[in-house]
Protein: ABC transporter ATP-binding protein
Organism: Kineococcus gynurae
Amino acid sequence: MTGPALSLRNLSKRFGEKLAVDALSLDVPAGSFFGVVGPNGAGKTTSLSMATGLLRPDTGQAFVLGTDLWADPLRGKQKLGVLPDGVRLFDRLSGAELVRYSGLLRGVGEEDVRVRTEELLDALDLTSAGERLVVDYSAGMTKKIALACALVHAPRLLVLDEPFEAVDPVSGATIRSLLTGYVAGGGTVVLSSHVMDLVERLCDHVAIIAEGRVLAAGELGTVRGGGTLEERFVELVGGGRDLSSGLTWLRGRP
Ligand SMILES: Nc1ncnc2c1ncn2[C@@H]1O[C@H](COP(=O)(O)OP(=O)(O)OP(=O)(O)O)[C@@H](O)[C@H]1O
């Protein structure tokens, strides 16, 4: 595989008056750890949803390891592991059942699914919760079981929408090490996050997105320039607002 692992071409999506994604193009090199950052409402989730077959674009194409995803969704999705935003799972299954069915649905054989499910639950510290229904999981546990479902068929491309949100620090470290090992083995990870520090530590490539467009993308060092990612982000997207003279009612009576 020499081309990009994920290639987005002129993706657009409109919700009523709101142009959420505006002719967005992006190439994610194979074998990279790629971070997508941007302010709230920038269009990250909408773009990643269109890139993974969850939301049909108004225009444009998404190529997953060379397959035009919307032209051949079955083939494209087989190569992909996805952790969607606000995960909706079949939560009346137990955690172990959910991972097992995800594997079987993606064509993994019975015995491999059994072993992988056991190993994933163990790695993500969910073994003792494996027989409990997912509906009873905490937010962080739900995120972890969804990640296990995204991994069980050993895809070569992982697209993860805010994988560290709601996850405790120990589990966060486990997920980081799992993903780093996955990339070291030749896999490609695309993740969105609001935590600049985390993106800087983990990712070797980054895209800064705002108002549905890519403002900067490429190798982390190049996008950052001489400063930190946060400085570059603020420079491109605009700084926070000065509220020193507003919201006076919040500060109590003189
Ligand atoms: N289903 C929808 N219906 C209407 N508007 C939507 C829908 N989904 C997203 N939007 C709008 O599209 C824009 C982009 O939203 P999106 O969720 O992609 O942003 P985001 O970058 O992921 O934001 P955040 O960082 O807050 O998660 C926002 O203005 C949002 O209100």
Q: What stands out?
A: Residues 15, 18, 20, 38, 40-46 surround adenosine-5'-triphosphate (CB under 6 Å).
